[in-house]
Amino acid sequence: MSISFSGGELLNIAIDIEKRGIVFYDVMAKSAENEEVRRVFQYLADMEHRHVETFQAMLSETDYTGKNAYGDEEAGYIKSLVENNIFSDDAITSELFARLDNDIEALELAIGLEKDSILFYYQLKDIAQPKEQKLLDGIIAEEKTHLRDLPEIKRKLAAG
Q: Cβ atoms within 10 A of the Cβ of 13, count?
């Protein structure tokens, strides 16, 4: 299957992922026991909000007309990837958090989900048109900002 994405379509996918991340991090912030971890998750939710704003600004600068460059089958495929792999419904429920033993595990989960989102964008880049790859590089750079502080916060929490 050959899928062609416009810049606007890629940005709409990114916006959907970021919105799902907001829900996930809000749930994590409300469920965290440690105040510092709660602040970290709230910070990440705030970053997701900023990424939505960034991607919406990028969207306003594209020549996106609102028409998909792929058919219903391909659109369903992409939607399924987003919904089932990055900040999936299971990941954004408090039941998942309840299965975690502690805040360190919650941070590890967040690190893994952030890595998954970056990998997803790299996968999109592999199938994107050459002119859209630079746009995806910008999205990937935005997502990498989430990973800057998480390992250090986890180390501090583990150290006590």
A: 21
**pTM of this prediction?**
0.72
Per residue in 75-122, pLDDT (tens digit) is 666 666 666 656 655 555 555 555 666 778 878 888 888 888 888 788
CA distances from 66 to 12, 28, 30, 45, 122 (A): 10, 34, 36, 27, 23
Dig out the tokens for 123 from the structure. 């996968």
Task: Tell me the CA distances in angstroms from 146 to 7, 18, 105, 128, one per residue in order.
Answer: 22, 11, 17, 23
Residue 91 backbone dihedrals phi, psi, to 5 degrees: -70, -25
CB-facing half-sphere around the CA of 85: CA atoms within 13 A: 15
Q: How far is CA 102 from the centre of its chain?
A: 22
Q: Answer whether 77's CB lies under 8 Å from 7's CB.
A: no
Q: Is the dihedral of CA 63, 67, 69, 75 positive or negative?
A: positive
Cα–Cα distance for residue pair 14/55, rounded to 1 Å: 7
> Do 29 and 38 meet the contact criterion of CB atoms below 8 Å apart?
yes
Cα 30 to Cα 67, 92, 107, 122, 155, distances in angstroms:
38, 12, 14, 31, 21
